[in-house]
């Protein structure tokens, strides 16, 4: 697709000017923005930025939630040949310093007062940051800072320039070429400073179009944009594919209204990481446990029918007359109302990615008629590498290579990818670029996996994280921490897991319980507790977690390759792992090395045979204050199982 994002915007505006391009919920009412209106808005913002001095090839930071005027700002920057860099809106000021200074950023567009305060706080460390433009003026009326202007002021000045020089905008748009840099996304930075991943219009639009063709997306899709725009997954689904296909993107009022907005919009094309699907299922489970006996009995009966029949129906296989009739009745009484309650009544295609999804979770959604599938990709590959066909969705794979993708497996088990969607490079980091891109165009994914007999890709773990048990009965056995963590996270009572074992004689884990699910479980058993720390250390909760760990151990014992990864000891952490405390990335991935350093006494206690260990941890509260949480943590032992030998 030889075009650019601004050219696609103008194409949609010319071909169907009155059709809705985006909707935004404001004060409980959905407001539509047509393609023609978006094009005019982008022109005025672009002219305003041009007048303010934004140059071709220059970087511009955009920080905020999904908002039409922030999307328009990214398009306006691209129209001038500048490069938008979306940053995470929940990142603290210190986390923004490196991207801003690394990319020599002079211009920032932010959503509201919170983001303005964040940038003003770090301005002394970002000497080039001369222009801060804000969208929402609430709370900012009395601010008097050099270079701080409202979006309305910028638009007004841009409108005046567009009136006096009507050809300026189109001239600038026509200067931009498909091979020009379109955007930069900073990685999570789990092991050091984040890296700026450079993408062109071509790389992003090539993958957006390939994904659209695979799932037969049209301009009639409805999408809910609720994940951070700084995450390339959200950016592809609600920006690149939005402009490639011309469908409608809906922006929730705020984070707390997403569930309600999901039901109101009823998206046809939906994306969420596994934790969102887990949260929705947990809420359903809690509600059903609190329901009356008759309703609970009907739900359980028809869910048994759904598990037997639903996945086969979704995969287009015959299921027989009686099962079909039972499923139809279940759809009328249970599955249809449930899909509607979740906001999935119109979903045609739903994807999950980022982490492995539990087989039970995966089966649940496909059983009730939601076409949930998995995909594989990364920031560096512009997301779309492997996707699952509608009739070949399985929990243990991430799909088949799609149009334009080649995959090979290196001698060390690493997945290598070649496609037109690969990054141009890491910004100002040729050494890191050379590490991941070979001279003949192959990208090192750092993921270990293999292609199965059906042509589907299976991912085991990160190559660097796949280790070996050293000593003991399982000496030399493979240890895959992420695989173990994901299997434990499939249980609704477990929210997060950190596994250790490489170079040691056994595997041990830290566990975060799901406070809502375990709290509800405790209340139904009349088990009193005073907050997370107290609940986490209850003997009954330890027994609950132990049962989950032992079920995973039993599963692992049947896998000859990973039987040595069974968990011997565990503890339940006294606090939830938090990105603000540095324990998770902004995309909620575990920073295993950082956690190991921070909680070294706990690791020592697990491996020295102790039955408990005192720990005190500094935490950061939402208002910026610091405090500490302390507790004496119990350490539990679990049963492990002899590897199951395959039948001869």
- Strand segment count: 29
Average of the residue pLDDT scores:
92
CATH class category of the domain at 5-271 = Alpha Beta
- Nearest-angstrom radius of gyration? 26 Å
DSSP summary: helix tally: 21
Topology of helices and strands:
Blueprint lengths: L4 H11 L4 E7 L2 E6 H18 L6 E5 L4 H12 L3 E5 L5 H10 L4 E4 L2 H10 L8 E4 L13 E3 H14 L3 H8 L5 E6 L9 E5 H14 L7 E3 L7 H14 L2 E4 L6 H8 L3 E3 L2 H16 L3 H22 L6 H22 L6 E4 L6 H9 L4 E5 L9 E2 L12 E2 L3 E5 L4 E6 L5 E2 L3 H7 L6 E9 L5 E6 L4 E2 L9 E2 L1 H9 L4 E7 L6 E7 L1 H10 L7 H5 L2 H19 L9 E6 L19 H7 L1 H9 L3 E9 L5 E9 L1 E2 L11
Parallel strand pairs: 1-11, 3-4, 3-5, 5-6, 6-7, 10-11, 12-13, 13-14, 25-26
Antiparallel strand pairs: 1-2, 8-9, 9-19, 14-15, 15-16, 17-18, 18-20, 20-21, 22-23, 24-25, 26-29, 27-28
Helix pairs in contact: 1-2, 1-3, 2-3, 2-6, 4-5, 8-9, 12-13, 12-14
Q: Keyphrases for this structure?
A:
single chain, 5-stranded mixed β-sheet, about 650 residues, 21 helices, 5-stranded parallel β-sheet, Rossmann fold, alpha/beta, globular, GMP Synthetase, Chain A, domain 3
Describe what you observe in this structure:
This protein is α/β, with parallel strands linked by helices and 648 residues long. Among the domains are: 5-271, Rossmann fold (3-Layer(aba) Sandwich), CATH 3.40.50; 466-637, ANL, C-terminal domain (GMP Synthetase, Chain A, domain 3). Helices cover 39% and strands 22% of the residues. The strands form 8 sheets. Strands 4-3-5-6-7 form a 5-stranded parallel beta sheet, with helices on both faces. A 5-stranded mixed beta sheet has the order 12-13-14-15-16. A 4-stranded mixed beta sheet has the order 2-1-11-10, sandwiched between helices. Strand 5, helix 5 and strand 6 form a beta-alpha-beta unit. It is globular.
